[in-house]
Amino acid sequence: MAQSLRKLSGIFVAFFISTVANAGWDDYKPYTLAAVIAEQPHPSTADYRTTAGDFPYLVNVGFTGQRRPLLPQKRRVIEQWVKSLRLNPGALSLYEEEFGFLEAGVTYWLPVQQQLISHFAKELKTGDTIRLYVVWIGSTKSESVFLVNEFQK
């Protein structure tokens, strides 16, 4: 029931993201964050790199329960992604925080859509293994930027 309500509350945002990326939920292919990062090198001369491509992935990760405000360099990547796709600038407000997720012993900090955060608190506990629906949108000099659009426990 909680997952159904979460999906209903996120219909607009899911529509927004899937329309932008031209991807439906079935287009998210099983992958690992590490494999995506290996295929998408970080910029060596610019501060960041964005894409207008279609890069949806379904990844299995551990929920650490750690959260922090969105880092400024990641905000710039999201801003440029929104501009490059000519989206409503208000789309940036969908991502204000990032959470730590564990994959193969490495913690990855990923921006999470605001409407998912309350569901994390209700449905997840530290150490849970979950599936994340993420879209890779670019990278800073030091890390890739994935947007979390949905999760399954």
Question: What would you say this structure looks like, in words?
Answer:
There is one protein chain. By secondary structure, this protein is α+β, with helices and mostly antiparallel strands. It is built from five helices and seven strands. Strands 1, 2, 3, 4, 5, 6 and 7 form a seven-stranded mixed sheet that branches. Helix 1 packs antiparallel against helix 5 (114-123). The longest helix is centred in the middle third of the chain and has 13 residues, at 72-84. Mean pLDDT is 83; it is low at 8-21.
**Which spans have pLDDT < 50 for at least 5 consecutive residues?**
8-21
**Structural class by helix and strand composition:** alpha+beta
Shape: globular
Helix and strand sequence: HHEHEEHEEHEE
Q: Please state the CA-atom Rg, rounded to the nearest Å.
A: 14 Å
Number of helices: 5
Question: For the terminal residues, how far apart are their CA atoms?
Answer: 13 Å
Give the mean pLDDT: 83
Q: Give the helix level as a range of percent.
A: 25-40%
Task: Give the biggest sheet.
Answer: 7 strands, mixed
Taken as a percent bin, the fraction of beta residues is 35-45%
Overall number of strands: 7
